[in-house]
Specification:
Keywords: Branched-chain amino acid catabolism, NAD, Oxidoreductase. It comes from Neoaquamicrobium sediminum. Its EC number is 1.1.1.31. This is 3-hydroxyisobutyrate dehydrogenase. InterPro entries: 3-OH-isobutyrate_DH-rel_CS (IPR002204), 6-PGluconate_DH-like_C_sf (IPR008927), 6PGD_dom2 (IPR013328), 6PGDH_NADP-bd (IPR006115), HIBADH (IPR011548), HIBADH-like_NADP-bd (IPR029154), HIBADH-related (IPR015815), NAD(P)-bd_dom_sf (IPR036291). The chain is of the alpha/beta class. It is 51% helix and 14% strand. It contains 13 helices and nine strands. Helix 4 packs parallel to helix 5 and helix 8 crosses helix 11. It is elongated, with a radius of gyration of 20 Å. The protein starts with a strand and ends with a helix. Bound molecules: nicotinamide-adenine-dinucleotide (NAD). Nicotinamide-adenine-dinucleotide binds next to helix 4, helix 6 and helix 11.
Length: 294
């Protein structure tokens, strides 16, 4: 059993913390939102009065926060309360530069740290089947992997500090671009009088096959579990896809990488979001491509 401080008990953090409790760890939680604390307490998390109080005496600290500025603010607040050698795991999706700064704050204070963002959404967090993409030293990863396992389907050590975030934004740039590509193909098929099922049956077993088509098909019918069958209720909200595409563009600009399709995907999701559809599943972009949304 390990004593774990869990900071950020939102849509993802709460089910992740619950899986750590189920694995037999002692989990102390903190969040700014009272309702989230009530849910956490019902899941067996011991509620702390502050992030600092949660961290005091913990062997591992997990953060699951909205963005880089939140992670840096919380790290700045809590490092002094943690014992030397405490392992800091940040599972938020944040920009690579902030992730590296968070590692620096931890290491200057004598802590071990990994960035370990996730893929798999709220469903994966509840089922304990998230994919973790970790960045950090071999020593920090070796200590962190068993902690991540109860929340994970798969844990990949991607490299040094920031490598987990780099893998996450590269993966999600592929996803944003491929969802738009699949959506465009269905819209063109409709104009050509080709049924959704016929295109699916061909493309899902041909060279056009990809996750956006075969697992997350953006039109209702061919894949009954995809959000298109429940009026695009997320799933993975378009606003979160936009966040990740913007992170990819920031990284492209800071490194000089040429990503024209990533830039276009970010623009299309920004328009979709500005039209008030940020809370729609990201596969709902097909409605925008069809001209179905105002
Ligand atoms: P969320 O907004 O539901 O949860 C974030 C929580 O952090 C909130 O409850 C908020 O109150 C808390 N918080 C903010 N500042 C805090 C502070 N100073 N101290 C304590 N708590 C604080 O967001 P989420 O959907 O749980 O996502 C969390 C992270 O995971 C994000 O970086 C997101 O991009 C990433 N992510 C989300 C999904 C998803 O499907 N929701 C999937 C993969 C990755």
């Amino acid at each position: 059993m390990t004593t774990i401080a869990f900071i950020g008990l939102g849509n993802m953090g709460n089910p992740m913390a619950a899986n750590l409790v189920k694995a037999g760890h002692q989990v102390r939680g903190f969040d700014l939102v009272a309702d989230n604390l009530t849910t956490a307490a019902a899941n067996g998390v011991t509620i702390s009065d502050s992030a600092t109080a949660a961290v005091d005496g913990a062997e591992v600290v997990v953060t699951m926060l909205p963005a880089g500025k939140h992670v840096l603010a919380v790290y700045g607040e809590i490092v002094a309360a943690a014992g030397k050698g405490t392992l800091f795991i940040d599972s938020s999706t944040i920009d690579v530069d902030s992730a590296r700064k968070a590692h620096a704050i931890a290491s200057e204070a004598g802590m071990l740290s990994i960035d370990a963002p996730v893929s798999g959404g709220v469903g994966g967090a509840e089922a304990g089947t998230l994919t973790f993409m970790a960045g950090g030293s071999k020593e920090a990863f070796a200590k962190g992997e068993p902690i991540l396992q109860p929340m994970a389907g798969k844990v990949v050590h991607c490299g040094d500090a920031g490598a987990g975030q780099a893998a996450k934004i590269c993966n999600n740039m592929i996803l944003g671009i491929s969802m738009i590509g699949v959506g465009e193909a269905f819209v063109l098929a409709e104009k050509l009088g080709l049924s959704h099922q016929a295109l699916f049956d061909v493309a899902s077993t041909s060279s056009g096959q990809c996750w956006s088509l075969t697992t997350y098909c953006p039109v209702p019918g061919p894949v009954p579990t995809s959000p298109a069958n429940r009026d695009y209720k997320p799933g993975f909200a378009a606003a979160l896809m936009l966040k990740d595409l913007k992170l990819a563009q920031e990284a492209a600009q800071s490194t000089g990488a040429v990503t024209p399709l990533g830039a276009e995907a970010a623009q299309l999701y920004a328009l979709f979001d500005a039209m008030g559809h940020g809370g729609t599943d990201f596969s709902g972009i097909v409605k925008f491509l069809r001209g179905d949304v105002a």
